[in-house]
Amino acid sequence: MITYMSLVQSQVEAALGQYGIRHEVLPCDPSLADTAAFCEHYGFTLEQAANTILAASRKTEPTKYALCVVLGTTRLDVNKKVCELLGVKRASFADAETTRELTGMEIGGVVAIGTSPEIPVYIDSRVLTQEKVVMGGGNRTSKLVLDPKELLKLPHATAVVELATVSKQ
Q1: How far is CA 11 from CA 35, 111, 137, 167, in A?
Q2: Model confidence over 15-54: pLDDT tens digits?
Q3: pTM of the model
Q4: Fold held by 5-166
């Protein structure tokens, strides 16, 4: 069911239609867009939250990037798994400015949908075991709710076992 489409960033809206990704759109107070605050305020669990993180190689020219989708209860294994996937020795989280430049999205609203197909999307296999997840809408004013398997409709998306590790809380 599609609702509140004007809230979703235009590049995300276009990709949702292009790839036939079934979803719902939820409006979000931008001050509550970060995962923990959003979940607490809107009644979602961290297990339902799918975060999209831009990872970047370090000391490699040209820099290699990947968008990584992990649950709010896990931590992206950037030092081992992301390095292995990118074929590099060192990687880290991209900063907010680089994320904005490459995705056109603000931290707190980043989603793999609507990004360049030249940037691979790696989805932790734990994400795909959830019935529904909530994730960014391309901005801090909306969130998407969807069956995470819908993300596999993206031509540059791949499921990865142990892309993330379970967080110690």
Answers
A1: 22, 11, 10, 32
A2: 999 999 999 999 999 999 999 999 999 999 999 999 999 9
A3: 0.93
A4: YbaK protein (3.90.960)
